[in-house]
Amino acid sequence: MVALTSFIARLIGSIAVLLCLLIGWGITQPSALASSHREAPLIAGDPLADNTDVYAFRSYEPGREGNVTLLWNHIPLEPVSGGPQFYPFGDDILYDIHVNNTGDGGDDITYRFKFQTEFVNKDSVLGMVAPNQDGVVSSNDDPDYNQRQRYTVTEIRRGIMGLGQRRKVLGKGLLVPPSNIGSRATPNYENLAAQAVYTLKNGYRVFAGQRSEGFYVDLGGVFDVLNFRSISDTGGRNTTGKFSVNTLAIEVPIKDLTRNRRQATDSTDPNAVIGIYSTASRCATKISATGNCSKPVQVSRLGSPLVNEVVIPLGLKDKFNATDPKDDAQFARFVVDPQLPKLIQSVFGINIPPAPRNDLVAIFATGIPTNSVPGAPQFTTFLSDGKPHELLRLNTAIAPTPYGRQNRLGLLGGDLAGFPNGRRVIDDVVDIELRAVAGGTPFTPATNVAPNNTLGDGVDKPSVPFLDRFPYLGTPISGNPPPQPRT
What we know:
Layout: H1 2-25, E1 51-58, E2 67-78, E3 93-100, E4 109-119, E5 147-158, E6 165-175, H2 189-195, E7 198-199, E8 205-212, H3 219-223, E9 244-253, E10 273-282, E11 297-302, H4 307-310, H5 317-321, H6 332-336, H7 340-348, H8 358-366, E12 392-395, H9 429-437
Antiparallel strand pairs: 1-2, 2-9, 3-4, 3-10, 4-5, 5-6, 7-8, 8-9, 10-11, 10-12
């Protein structure tokens, strides 16, 4: 009953947010600029399956640069004190991250996370943590961690000549740490998180658990029809900073992701580029021990940030979530002539590039061709068979920028290892994409002027610092921090 009540409360909250969105924008306008948080009508009522952000980048943790880190988040805008169930992954959901390395938009490699909840003491009136001993969770198998989850990671590769699939279980029985409940229950939270980073036999690393919300944005200004407190780098308010998310993470050697199973050294090598997107699928029946289920229904999808959010019209958002990138030709017209630039033109009174927006097609649908970036002739993320496929593309031959030297504006800031070359946690995708859709980039010289190329939401960093190591997203805020001494 407690779990049902908690779910209903979250559902009502999601519907309320959706109604506010529809009333505020009108049904023909794009929804909230919040990466992919509750961006479509159906997924707004299903937070456990809601993909919120995808990150893909060359690992920059010292000694791990020969790997790619893939992160994807679920359960948007988690209040930090949301007990007693807090925020489990869904036992009846397939959480997948997909890699395409051939350019056809298909799933060449999939990493699937499947969860199973177990209880230490079902007679307890509490949920995730209960005083079965002393009420303090000192490890992820502590008996006071009462409602815990284990998961299995399975690799699924497309068969030879595209026929069939090859499955391999990479790890099983792996523990998810509890949510950061408070100073008594989880007093040393990062120790629990560190215990939940598993190195598998093949050298892969995985993690699943709660992290701080890394997507930073002034949502208040977005909801108020782009009425930002500031339209530059600073002066806004990070309204996502007080929330957490559930993160899935896997780190894989580059050679295991590329088309020719080698690590390219030439950034123009077509084998260097991979495309990434994540999905969540609900199952009509209970997931089996092998991770299979009958009639899985894809309910959420995410590649590049903000595409379904601000490019796909409201009436097609649910369809986009249920579609694979190989079938994206049906949505191409919305990238060629999107609505958001016209909204920005109306609000800020600026000139924008005319349609067709081939610059946006390159960023989101095909990848960026070699020699098309002024000042960076060796830069490319092109990966396409001639058709549009919305993917987050990463050139694995471009070396990672060390954490302390990364530029939050990525390619626009002269940092070739950042968005739209993959996406790191630090990349300010709101500012980058506002400038891109306004034509404030070198791709469109006529409009690459102020204010087009200086637009922003006034937020330039997260509220919680990122980590310089796997899984990179910051420590989730405690639901009940210790009292601060008075000064």
